[in-house]
Fold:
Amino acid sequence: MQQNVVAEIRALEAEVGRAMQAGRGEAAWPLWERILGRDPNHGAALMALGQRAFRSGDLATARRHFDHLTRVDGRDKQQWINLAVVCVGQQDEAGEEAAIRGALTIDATDLLGLILRANLLKRQGKSHAAASAFGAVAAVAPPLERLSPELRPAVMEAMAYRDGYNRQFGAHLDATLAPLLRDLQGEDLGRFRESMDIMLGRKKRYDSQSAIFHYHGLAPVSFFKREDFPWLDPIEAATDAIRDEFLGVLKAEEGFTPYLTYSTDQPLNQWAELNNSPRWSAFHLIKDGVLQPGNAGQCPQTMAALQHAPQPDQPGRTPSAMFSLLKPQTHIPPHTGVSNVRLVTHLPLIIPPHCGFRVGNETRSWEAGRAWVFDDTIEHEAWNRSDLLRVVLIFDIWHPHLNPAERAMISAMSGAIAAFTGDAGSFAL
Structure:
């Protein structure tokens, strides 16, 4: 391009800028036309004049400008989005599809591009592909409250379409599989049912979220099968004696501490309400691997029962055993534990109505004297919606799928960490 033409275009661009800054938008249009006359490939002029034509309803002119812009440039996804929107107005599905592909090739997560693709597939009656596309919209969209008002209805429509499709899909699968499920009645198909529910969006997928040390290869299991832990039989049999010992220490009103005792200079997140609160408290028998003689000495039968459990050996962290007290109208928010190498056992002692416990997708109610074992690195929460105290004996055990050699190495590693830090609790497993 000749030097004098370049200079003329720059002068015209500056004049456009002054007109826009002064609020004289109409004065800019003839300037853009003059610029395009000097340089037919001028990107900003093509964009501005194409947008103006679209707003005025002149789709043919808008299409001509946007087509030209994507041919000579095409590096900005907005160029392709504009072209796709014009194609929608012209009912040119082939052009629309090509333009959407151009935008998503530049940015595969562009929300507007994904919305346009989903809407195109819906209009074409391609319900399966449309459901996948609407699912992609829902997956990349931020929370509705953070969306611009212009995009919020489209994202809500995407979620509604995806959910409706999943309901139809689920009903089809339920009806088709019902005869086989009847034939297999009595078989353990819990994992299959939950996997299908997750696929259909009926349930959420929960994985182990170990906060500090995650042991690779241990399958995330919310609640383990009771029959896998025959050593629980003598512990459950001692429930009455254990409860009596607890009632004795409760009467003395000594040795109880808040379950959470973070210092005020630490980020508390969901724990702000319960930190240093007696609403959720503990009577520690073994804390961070250390026997609490004053407390344990008051509960000899409880300590004897705990000897049946395969308690983990991690210096500075485990074993751990305590009476956990949850006062009336108290909710422990969703959270996860620090490591999946050990599991947590609950032996319910005092259970009023309206108490519950959730691990992942499964919610249970405690029954006095009936223990369960769960993986606390899977999101879990608890609540006491009664007007009475809830009490559970809590203790940890080795994960049963760790072999003796693995357990020995984990114990040795925990000791090495404690030796390195001088404070095992600063990097507890």
